């Protein structure tokens, strides 16, 4: 590793310590990657790409030392909860729509049959065949 890379890593570790102890000097003090990057004086993407291990370490320390869920994880959990509700609502709606399709199909069949019977009219008298009486 070159000197600049090593310097960035040490600034990030120092920034982690300041944020976790509540002594932020260059950021708003929130326990996020954005605040960590600002506190360390590095670009956020450098933290995300070149120092992803330090980002993960930061989030792990947030979990263990402060017993808090990191902000990004909290937002993701909220999104997952909302999506699960949406899926459940859509499943219920699909079930209801399937039942409606079945009822409408049956209603259509009944109406079609009734229309056919009305078009045929009453049965003609000439097609009635009388039963023969038995003589025994």
Automatic annotation (TrEMBL):
Coiled coil in keyword set: yes
Domain of life (superkingdom): Bacteria
Coiled coil spans: 73-107
Record key words, sorted: Coiled coil
UniProt region (Disordered), positions on chain: 117-136
Name of this protein: Uncharacterized protein
Organism, scientific name: Streptomyces graminofaciens
């Amino acid at each position: 590793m070159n000197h600049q890379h090593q310097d960035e890593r040490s600034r990030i570790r120092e920034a982690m310590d300041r944020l976790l102890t509540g002594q932020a000097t260059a950021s708003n003090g929130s326990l996020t990657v954005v605040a960590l990057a600002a506190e360390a004086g590095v670009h956020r993407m450098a933290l995300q790409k070149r120092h992803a291990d330090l980002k993960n370490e930061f989030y792990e320390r947030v979990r263990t030392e402060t017993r808090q869920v990191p902000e990004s994880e909290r937002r993701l959990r909220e999104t997952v909860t909302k999506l699960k509700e949406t899926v459940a609502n859509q499943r219920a709606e699909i079930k209801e729509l399937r039942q409606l399709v079945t009822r409408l199909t049956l209603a259509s069949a009944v109406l079609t049959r009734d229309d056919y019977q009305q078009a045929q009219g009453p049965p003609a008298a000439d097609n009635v065949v009388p039963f023969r009486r038995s003589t025994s």
